[in-house]
Amino acid sequence: MRKSIIALSIAFIFAAAANTSAYEKGAIFYHSSKGDLIYGRTSILELPCSVIKAVFGELKSGHAGLYIGEGKIIHAIRDGVIETTSENFMTKEDLDGGAKFMGAKVPADYSDKAKWPDERKDQMILFAKEQVGKWYDLTFHKQTGAGSGDFTCVGLVEYVYEMVGYDITPLGFYSGGAGGKTYTQTYNCLETGFSDLERVNTFAETMQFSKFSHPLEFFAGLEYEGDKYMFFPYTQYIQATTVPVADDPATPISGGSGSGGGSGCFIATAAYGSVLNPHVGVLRAFRDKYLRVTSGGRAFMRLYAEWSPPVAGFIAESEGLKAVARVLLVPVIAAAYLVSTAGLWQSFVIAGLAFAGFAGAALYFRRRRGSVLQQAGRS
User: Fold this and answer.
1) Got the DSSP string for 150-201?
2) Are the CB atoms for 203 and 39 separated by under 8 Å?
3) Does residue 150 share a domain with residue 52?
4) Which one of 211, 234, 256 terminates a domain?
5) How do residues 312-330 score in pLDDT, each as one tens digit?
6) Structure confidence by residue, pLDDT tens digits, 26-39
7) How far is CA 251 from CA 29, 134, 327, in A?
8) Which of 53, 74, 167, 302 has its Cβ near the most Cβ atoms within 10 Å?
9) Are residues 86 and 29 part of one domain?
10) Is the domain of 182 the same as that of 65?
11) Tell me, what CATH number does 58's domain have?
């Protein structure tokens, strides 16, 4: 009887071990957007009337990220390309909005050791790590990192795989017809003068870029032969070049408290070229310590999130504007550093003393100069 129990126990252990899955490094994670929506999954292809709102979560494009092993991911969010723990792939904010994990996928031939030796996978992860700190493509002018290294989430994944010779989604520009979906949207908002404006949006099923039309299409999108295009995560997700893998219960993919990319230091990141720049870090620390915890600070963050991305987009594309922005940011960063290190009230005291010192020095030199001039006049 004991032998039977032991045998059954051993069999159960081996069965459990056989059913236990683990994400391989290189697995691609996908999740939907608010309300479990993702552009392209339904026949209705609607975009928000405001491009700025699209940048801040209303695009309903979903999200993609790359698992690099040991419970970590690399993905492109609005703060830039970051490496973080896997539980931050779907933040609490995502979950509260109704977003859902769609699953993980790997190349169709990923189990073939001859085609995918460990060295090739390691090289891919290395390429992914080299992109950490790059700028998020807020205006969607590059998307896959062409030239400047600006990325969207799906563009980053596509780029990293292409760097090791694997093309997930064939390059192409879909403008309608076979191989995708087409939908006529009627826009009516401030940007259209609150009048109806019809435009055609598409979703590419067999190639990277989908043509879209928008009241503010001059602002966003990859330009190709006079039209604007977008690379959507769901296009990559449905490609036959990748296959689903079983969920790994030991690797959490949601519930993290990390940034989902909202209210980032957009202008500073554009000026310094990386979210990892120490100057940007000073501003982020000030934001997290003081702005996020007060109603006034959160109101400022919402306002900043509305108007700063277009400005940051233009700054990011000009070395001259970057230099000007860095000069203008010096007093802002200095003040943020002082407050973050010394404290708010202590900073006011220090600033007051400094102001009093400068004022006293100016008054002293002014009087001394007047005295010198007066003596010179007498002589």
Assistant:
1) -B-HHHHHHHHHHHTT--SS---EE-SSTTEEEEEEEE-SGGGTTS-EEEEE
2) yes
3) yes
4) 256
5) 767 777 788 888 888 888 8
6) 999 999 999 999 99
7) 12, 26, 44
8) 74
9) yes
10) yes
11) 3.90.1720.10
First to last CA, the chain: 122
Do 185 and 330 share a domain, yes or no?
no
Q: Count CB atoms within 10 A of the CB of residue 125.
A: 19
Question: Residue 335 is which amino acid?
Answer: A
Q: Is the pLDDT of residue 25 over 90?
A: yes
370 inside domain? no
Q: How many domains does the chain divide into?
A: 2
Ramachandran sector of residue 259 (left: φ over 0; alpha: ψ -120 to 50; beta: rest): beta
Q: Are strands 90-91 and 227-231 parallel, antiparallel or unpaired?
A: unpaired
Q: How far apart are CA 200 and CA 78, in angstroms?
A: 27
Closest among 6, 37, 29, 55 to 220, alpha carbons compared: 55
Cβ pair 80, 264 in contact under 8 A: yes
Report how far Cα 358 is from the mean position of its chain's Cα atoms: 43
pTM over 0.90: no
> CA 192, CA 17: separation in Å to the nearest integer?
59
- The answer on 187 and 97 residing in a single domain is yes
User: Rounded to whole angstroms, how far apart are CA atoms 139 and 55?
Assistant: 8
DSSP lists the bridge partners of residue 77 as 80
Q: Which residue range is the domain that position 57 belongs to?
A: 21-256
- Which string of DSSP letters, residue by residue, matches 29-60? EEE-BGGGB-TTSSS-----S-HHHIIIIIT-
Looking at the structure, tell me whether residues 237 and 332 fall in a common domain.
no
Q: Say which DSSP state 24 is in.
A: P
Neighbours of 307 (CB within 10 A): 11
Q: Using CA atoms, how far apart are residues 217 and 224, in angstroms rounded to an integer?
A: 13
Asked if residue 224 and residue 121 are part of one domain, the reply reads yes
3-state secondary structure of 70: coil
Q: 3-state DSSP call for residue 73? A: strand
Q: Token match 């994670």: residue?
A: 29
Averaged over 207-224, what is the pLDDT?
87
For the stretch 336-374, what's the b/e string if a residue is b when 16 or more beta carbons lie within 10 angstroms of its beta carbon?
Answer: bbbbbeeeeeebeeeeeeeeeeeeeeeeeeeeeeeeeee
| 14 inside domain | no
Instruction: Please check whether residues 196 and 334 belong to one and the same domain.
Output: no
Domain final residue, candidates 215, 230, 256: 256
